[in-house]
Amino acid sequence: MKDFLAIEYPPAVQETLTTVCNAIGLPMLAPHIHEVVLAFALYHGLFLMGPLFNSAFSSYKTMPRRTRINFDIHVVSQVQCLLIIALAFPAFFDPELKVDHLFAYSPYGGLVYAFAVGYFAWDSYISLKYINWFGIGFAVHGIASVSVFLLSFRPFLMYYGPVFLMFEISTPFLNVHWFTSHLPPNTVPEKVQLVNGVLLLLSFFLARLVWGFASAGVLIYDFYKAWGDPRMPFWLPCFVLTSNLSLDFLNVYWFSKMIKAVQRRLDSNKKHKPDNPDLLTEEEDIKGHKME
């Protein structure tokens, strides 16, 4: 499949990019550098313009600065997850990626990964800038994500890009939940919130737990079949599997928190308390965008 954002660099620029990317072991990154930059600029531009658009909600102006920043981050996250799902889904049908699950490359696959790298580079920047709020662990999460997605340009695991990007299917519902819990009561009808909550739990369980662990199992089998291939040094599958399984088990942790929160809400409803607990506590809520 073709990369519809591909451009032809001037010869001198192309030579320089090729030399640098070959030197760092990512030869297929060179044709996609501009897409990484474009993605980063897109997401940071949305973040910077966030206060302009989000001020349409009167409650936004009265939020603490930390909550306003997190509101802007969730807006970027919502755009990113919808965009990356739309980009990743066609890659399932890319014949060039089906040839080899571990070492295949396609121009379209490179486009998908470029936007993933651009987003997680932006996410790492934001996590570092506001590290006092989000903590060092979330900065490490962003940097690790960038590293894993960059490895696809060796090329390596480009076939699995759309597989694991399908984790994002639950993110739109997570963001809608976050927004509704920070807007004035009745801004979003209660029935809409209930349906969104059910879809959040269902999509999180199916996409991140069922699909996530099943895909990890298939990936491990592919690694086993390719063991000893000189294109796959020992550290490479170890790093990828450690990152992938860490995220899978983190998703189990988050899902358990969701279930407990649902139980809190049901208990609260039985006692007829007016202030039903949210799906996440306030501290979890502040950091909730990292569940993506």
TrEMBL record:
It comes from the Eukaryota. Pfam families: TRAM_LAG1_CLN8. The chain crosses the membrane at residues 36-57, 69-93, 105-122, 134-153, 159-180, 192-214, 234-255. Keywords: Membrane, Transmembrane, Transmembrane helix. Residues 66-267 form the TLC domain. It is found in: Membrane. Its main location: membrane. Residues 270-292 are annotated as: Disordered. It is a multi-pass membrane protein. This is TLC domain-containing protein.
